[in-house]
Design a protein that fits this description.
29 strands; alpha+beta; EC 6.3.1.14; 725 residues; six-stranded mixed sheet; elongated; Rossmann fold; Rossmann-like_a/b/a_fold; ATP-binding
């Protein structure tokens, strides 16, 4: 269990990325090692903070708390002397009142005691960050992050989701001298194991983990520790005497702890002031020597010459009339598109005003349809220029606070006078359908800096799970611990950003990996990066096949559907590549896959659909490619009609089993080949498909592709079931 009752606080940074830190410190191994990680990252510890039980309660050792470790709190004063740092302490007056997945301020909750403590220290010491020793506990991380958000403090959780076996070895090799101070799990004996050191316990903990699934680092509350010495201590703690207190005499898993009777400090030699922490795990993985392209994969993409332009200007599409809604599905899903921010400097309106008006329009339309902004689970934000990102994001922040939706943000080709466009997926159950089995909504919104995956750099969540479907935010190749774009070029960026996707999927639902992806989009900023994206995607899927070690994964790519790679002008942070996926927690090998091709007047049409094994959702991709260049403008009426026919065949094939009805669509079309007005009025998007759509003009496609119609990146239950008659 992570120790949250005492916290290190940090001050003036030695490096640009560092900040002034407070250490929330209970004396356990996790908080001590995370403190070492903070110092290794360039942060300076300036204070310790600790919460302790109220003496009058009589429960002065073992407090029944969801948040805090209190065993050993009598000895916390020694840590201030051992580290030569000021210690701030407050009492735990509240209890565990708000125990939901999302924490909101509750006056009587014990979390508010932490808020008061950290506010006190921030006012006194001017701290900027908080060290958090959490490894797996979302409950504690969410509450610490909520407190830090309200106080404008940066939580640092460098142990978050680390492999516990490796982590324990690192702690031992980093000279953390900690003893077992509490046991509460099957296999742990108070008489045998209390007072034992980590290195003495490591082999036995590994054995318990293999046999009974015990968390090696005690994340399930199996045991707690007390640190006697670590390289940051100027003095070490010596236990003179202690007694065993039996808290619960369970026959199989007795709960007992050590109560210290007498301790003292001893000076350490000067050589003890230095320490070594293992090299940053995310820095090493982001600069993996295995990230090397093969010669044939790195050949530049041949650019298809412009062969046809519409006589209609691209700006002719009236973006004031593009708003649309799909109507609500039986499972509570609805798709909205066409929310547009208009901006013309000549009108005297600022960029910020235009953004605010657009988000106000979004909120008004949500309200008119019976939704709130908190019901939005996925947002596509298409910007005319990334230079406006900061201004637009500030307006976005003002609207989206708690439970922010996942977001994909790219710069694309928008008409003059259009600042950005938004489309979004909304989910909410009606009272009328309350008798139906509701899908639980889970949100992952990690704000702590760690070695795991990038913290949120904006008001969005990493992932939202509704029922069996996972919606992930777009991922770029930021180094998690520095939040800076990784160096090394497109190959490194492609691998690292896709690794972030994998880690988010796995964290959101155990054993979920890339083979569970139902739909994947990849945005790149140069046509030369297209083969890189395809190569990395296929390579990672092959790795999934090897891990499964199953012959049924013969063609693992088919269970994931088509990867859509499109070239746009810019991405956030000047990244070269961004991945966006929707996955389903199902059995990928039982998915239904359908694919077909046809030729039509000099074009090739490809269609592919994948239905989840649970039949809860499906994806369809249709693509139109020019077979060979032509000197005369092609007639697109026939190919577009055939494309629609093929799409409808795919829908009908799905409907045989699940009565599928398309809810929404995104169409990517190539710059200088089509214009938006032509597609807007074409049978493809208006007359035949008869459902909500989003048009995205891009710069390039792979090979000779000119249109990609995508009905995948839009929804869980992307298909609403018709009632059975």
């Amino acid at each position: 269990m992570p120790c949250l009752s005492e916290t290190p606080l940090f001050a003036s940074p030695h490096t640009p990325a560092a900040c002034c830190q407070l250490l929330q410190f209970c004396g356990g191994k996790d908080s001590c090692y995370n403190m070492m990680q903070c110092v290794a990252a360039g942060h300076q510890i300036v204070a310790l903070a600790n919460l302790r039980p109220v003496e009058s309660t009589g429960q002065t050792d073992e407090l029944d708390s969801y948040m805090y470790q209190t065993v050993g709190h009598h000895a916390v004063d020694l840590y201030a002397d051992a580290m030569d740092l000021p210690l701030y302490r407050c009492f735990i007056k509240g209890t565990s009142v708000n125990t939901g997945r999302v924490y909101t301020t509750c006056e009587e909750d014990e979390v508010e005691d932490l808020y008061c403590l950290l506010k006190l220290v921030k006012d006194k010491e001017g701290v900027e960050g908080v060290s958090v020793g959490a490894i797996l506990s979302d409950y504690q991380r969410i509450r610490v992050e909520d407190v830090c958000r309200r106080l404008n403090l940066q939580p640092l959780a460098y142990l978050w989701r680390r492999n516990q076996e490796i982590l324990l070895k690192e702690m031992i090799s980093s000279n953390i001298q900690a003893i077992i101070i509490k046991v509460a799990a099957f296999g742990l004996d108070p008489d045998k194991h209390l007072g034992k050191t980590l290195d003495q316990m490591e082999p036995f903990l590994l054995e318990l983990s293999e046999k009974y699934g015990v968390h090696i680092c005690g994340e399930g509350g199996e045991y707690e520790t007390f640190t006697l010495d670590c390289p940051l201590f100027k003095k070490k703690i010596v236990v003179d005497s202690a007694k065993v207190v039996l808290h619960s005499a369970d026959a199989f898993a007795p709960v007992a702890y050590l109560h210290f009777l007498k301790l003292h400090l001893e000076n350490k030699g000067e050589s003890s002031d230095t320490f070594m922490v293992s090299s940053c795990s995310c820095e090493l993985s982001c600069n993996d020597g295995n990230i090397l392209p093969s010669s044939e994969e790195d050949e530049p993409q041949k650019i298809l010459p412009v062969i046809w332009k519409s006589n209609t200007k691209h700006n002719s599409l009236d973006f004031t009339k593009t708003f649309g809604s799909s109507g609500k599905s039986l499972r509570g899903y609805q798709w909205f598109s066409g929310f547009t921010a208009h901006f013309l400097p000549s009108e005297g309106k600022s960029t910020q005003d235009a953004a605010r008006e657009a988000f106000s329009s979004l909120q008004a339309n949500m309200t008119s349809e019976g939704f709130k902004l908190k019901d939005i689970i996925l947002v596509h934000l298409y910007m005319k220029s990334m230079k406006d990102f900061t201004v637009i994001n500030s307006a976005y922040v003002a609207e989206f606070d708690l439970c922010s939706p996942v977001r994909v943000c790219v710069e694309t080709l928008l008409p003059d006078g259009v600042l950005f466009c938004i489309d979004c997926l909304v989910h909410k159950y009606d009272i009328a359908t309350d008798d139906m089995l509701h899908d639980e909504k889970l949100v992952m919104h990690v704000q702590s800096i760690s070695h795991w995956a990038p913290a949120n750099i904006g008001p969005y969540s990493q992932s939202i799970k509704v029922g069996d479907v996972l919606y992930c935010a777009g991922q770029i190749a930021l180094v998690p611990c520095t939040m800076q774009l990784v160096s090394g070029g497109i190959w490194t960026e492609a691998v690292v950003s896709l690794r972030h996707v994998e880690r988010v999927l796995q964290a959101m639902s155990q054993n979920t990996a890339l083979q569970h992806v139902l739909a994947a989009s990849c945005y790149v900023t140069n046509s030369k990066y297209i083969p890189v994206a395809h190569s990395i995607w296929q390579r990672k899927l092959r790795e999934c096949k090897k891990e499964e070690d199953s012959e049924t994964y013969n063609d693992v790519a088919t269970v994931c559907g088509m990867l859509a790679v499109v070239v746009i002008s810019h991405l956030p942070r000047d990244a070269a590549i961004e991945w966006h996926v929707i996955a389903v927690v199902d059995n990928p090998m039982q998915r239904k896959h359908f694919a077909m091709k046809m030729l039509s007047e000099g074009f090739e049409i490809e269609c592919e659909s994948v239905e989840s094994s649970s039949a809860s959702c499906a994806s369809i991709s249709v693509r139109l490619s020019l077979i060979s260049p032509s000197t005369s403008p092609p007639n697109l009426d026939g190919p577009l009609h055939d494309l629609v026919v093929m799409f409808r065949q795919a829908v009908e094939k799905l409907s045989e089993d699940c009565n599928a009805i398309p809810l929404s669509s995104r169409a990517f079309f190539k710059e200088d080949f089509f214009d938006a007005q032509a597609l807007q009025t074409a049978d493809l998007l208006k007359c035949i498909l008869e459902f909500n759509r989003c048009l995205c003009k891009i710069t390039r496609f792979p090979k000779k592709l000119v249109v990609s119609q995508d009905c995948t990146n839009i929804l869980n239950k992307s298909w609403a079931r018709r009632p059975q008659l």
